[in-house]
Design a protein that fits this description.
The protein has 259 residues and is mostly beta strands. The protein has one domain (8-255): Jelly Rolls (Sandwich). The protein is built from no helices and 24 strands. It is globular, with a radius of gyration of 18 Å.
Length: 259
């Protein structure tokens, strides 16, 4: 059911249905050192070990004046989406600078790169980091770096939601992996329709902030770091934000990993 070279999922975790909701607590949260908390929806000890070449999608919270010092990567395309705080990046290609909330960074490691990611501020930093195995045809490229501000990302309105195209869908972000990624903000009390995956895709949706609900005949409460999985056959799903909280989520449209 799951091609091992691209996808690894605990078969006891998912069901053969078009729509599934998982609460945040069904995925591991780790605190390996005093300055770091991470929630692994994909990768690490998650039952969603790998999805169509996506090795990890996880929240990382870094305490003030801490972070990851110089370390290497190989064969990866790594995207970083900042939720709060300011993250400083520097790498051996000469790429460097601060990444602010709503900004998207991409680092292509090629055969070898070293970088560091530090929180030099007095406030916590919280990011979603996404690691992909680079598509085979791109693996000989030299390491390189790209960063986009929020105002450089294409936006559209779907119901009450503002949707940003992060990867694909006319985004200027380059990519050396296969898939699409959007970020959505649904304001207090607003509603929108879940954008179903295309025929050759499945959807992995990760709630990054806020609270709301998903309704498709039955109603599922949504909270921070909850996950939705869906196939193109899913019935229409209405997403709504609560009366006192915006709802923010990332939608990963990846080559089919559930069928």
């Amino acid at each position: 059911m799951f091609p091992l070279q691209d996808t690894q999922i605990d078969p006891r975790f998912v069901q053969p249905v078009p729509f599934q909701h998982f609460s945040a607590g069904q995925f591991p949260t780790i605190h390996p050192i005093h300055w770091l908390h991470s929630h692994f929806a994909v990768g690490g000890w998650s039952p969603l070990q790998r999805l169509s070449g996506m090795l990890t999608a996880h929240m990382t919270r870094i305490a003030p004046h801490n972070g990851f010092t110089w370390h290497p990567h190989r064969g990866l395309e790594i995207f970083t989406w900042v939720l709060e705080g300011t993250l400083y990046h520097e790498d051996t290609t000469g790429g460097s600078g601060e990444i602010q909330p709503g900004e998207l960074q991409r680092m292509f490691s090629g055969d070898y790169i070293e970088h560091m990611e530090m929180n030099y501020t007095d406030h916590p930093v919280r990011v979603i980091q996404i690691w992909f195995v680079a598509d085979r045809q791109h693996r000989g490229l030299e390491p390189h770096y790209q960063q986009l501000r929020r105002d450089q990302l294409p936006t559209r309105t779907v119901g009450d939601a503002t949707v940003y195209s992060l990867i694909g869908e006319e985004s200027p972000m380059q990519q050396h992996m296969t898939g699409r990624l959007t970020a959505a903000r649904l304001p207090v009390g607003g509603s929108t329709q879940l954008e179903a995956p295309r025929e050759d895709e499945d959807l992995f949706l990760y709630v990054t902030d806020g609270a709301g609900a998903a309704a498709n005949g039955s109603t599922h409460s949504l909270g921070q770091y909850d996950v939705i999985l869906a196939t193109p056959e899913t019935e229409p799903v209405t997403l709504s934000a609560t009366a006192d909280s915006d709802l923010h989520y990332l939608s990963f449209y990846l080559p089919s990993f559930l069928r």
